[in-house]
Amino acid sequence: MDAFYASVEQRDDPSLRGLPVAVGGSRERGVVAAASYEARRFGVHSAMPSITARRRCPDLVFVKPRFEVYKAISAEIRAVFAEHTAIIEPLSLDEAYLDVTENIRGIGSATAIAEAIRAEIRRRTGLTASAGVSYNKFLAKIASDQMKPDGLFVITPAMGPGFVETLPVKKFHGVGPATAERMHRLGLHTGADLRAQTIEFLTAHFGKSGPYYHGIARGIDHRPVRANRERKSVGSESTFSSDLRQREDLEAALAPLIDKVWRHCETHGLAGRTVTLKVKFADFQQITRARSNAAPVASREALERPVLELLQALLPAPKGIRLLGVTISSFAEPGETAPVQFALPL
Predict the structure, then answer these.
(1) In which residues is Mg(2+) bound (predicted)?
(2) Residue 334 pLDDT level (bands cut at 50, 70, 90)
(3) Residue 238: exposure state from Cβ atoms within 10 A (0-12, 13-18, ≥19)
(4) Contacts of 98 (CB under 8 A, 6+ apart)
(5) Is 94 annotated as a binding residue?
(6) What are the CA-CA distances from residue 257 to residues 33, 58, 288, 326 (Å)?
(7) What tens digit of pLDDT does each residue of 126-146 get?
(8) 198/273 same-domain check
(9) Strands 286-292, 95-98: parallel, antiparallel or unpaired by DSSP?
(10) 174 part of a folded domain
(11) Do residues 10 and 54 both lie within one domain?
(12) Does 304 lie in the same domain as 247?
């Protein structure tokens, strides 16, 4: 979807159309969750601190997010996908991979399917979507960004290897800013530079990601589209209207985050072993602290305990805290529970 959250807000409030809009945060605090294309022209983007976004675009309009609305529209969009294929791998509320090799309507062209899906999304929601069509996930993802907004781009098997050669490594899906910088230090700036390296060289410098980089530099990606993809973690975070320092205030701020994470785990039958506390200070320095248990977390209290212990280890806070987050991960297999501890007579 094109600037999904911001486009929904502009659709529902005509007064926002044509204006630079940021969803989330405020003029002074918080983080931008999404930016309209008008805002992006000023260099505003998601995950940017609100105060930085306002400096770049003084006329930026901040809108409070409505996640329940976005989820409902996302469900409408997924319903359109399901009319064409059952093999759908959601990445987020506004993005997914579809395998249409065998599709429900028997359409013989992936490009025609993409056009049909885009048209139906526009008809049902009034929103625009961009699509990338290719013979593997890596290239389909790259293609989806080529003609935004409201575009479609196709990378055929004949085009694939040559297309990748000219692509800057920072554009590769799966190569973040830190990895791109490491590649640059090694003289790897484009797909052609990556392709010139052996798999041994890439593995030595990038570990288990080496074979993946070796493949995609040649337009090769064998990863299947995985329906019902396993969730890796559940988390919640909050940015505060004023910086917090006192233990009591921080513990009070953590309580609703712990409640939300545990409620999701309980509802979906998830039990994780690793609890992570995220802290962002007033100067935007960010740290995480984690604790792993031998057995899955089995109650809200068992989730709260390590979170508060991790917080206590950071106190007294050297500077104000503007954001806290709680995440649980390393999920157990279904049916695996915490061991029972019996009382023994003394």
Answers:
(1) 94
(2) low
(3) middle
(4) 81, 84, 85, 87, 88, 89, 117, 225
(5) yes
(6) 18, 32, 15, 6
(7) 999 999 999 999 999 999 999
(8) no
(9) unpaired
(10) yes
(11) yes
(12) yes
Q: What six digits make up the tokens of 234? A: 């559940």
> In the prediction, which pLDDT does 158 show?
94
Give the whole-angstrom CA distance, residue 80 versus residue 168: 33
Q: By percentage, how much of the chain surpasses pLDDT 70?
A: 95
284-304 pLDDT, tens digit per residue, is 899 999 999 888 998 999 999
CB of 250 within 8 A of CB of 324?
yes
Q: Is residue 210 part of a domain?
A: yes
Listed in sequence order, the DSSP H helices in the chain are 4-12, 37-40, 50-56, 67-82, 110-125, 137-144, 160-165, 177-185, 191-195, 199-206, 210-216, 247-268, 300-312
How many domains does the chain fold into?
4
Asked if residue 148 and residue 170 are part of one domain, the reply reads no
pLDDT at 339: 45
On whether the CB atoms of residues 297 and 303 are closer than 8 A, the answer is yes
Model-level pTM greater than 0.85? no
Residue 340 placed within a domain: no
H or E segment and range at residue 29: none
Q: Based on the fold, state whether residues 263 and 274 are members of the same structural domain.
A: yes
User: Which residue in 89, 95, 115, 251 is the catalytic one?
Assistant: 95
pLDDT at 341: 43
Q: Supply the range of the domain harboring residue 75.
A: 68-155
299 Cβ contact list (under 8 Å, min separation 6)? 262
pLDDT band with cut points at 50, 70 and 90 for residue 333: low
Residue 111 corresponds to which amino acid? T
For residues 211 and 130, state if they share a domain: no
Find the CATH number of the domain harbouring 207.
1.10.150.20
The verdict on whether 165 is a catalytic residue reads no
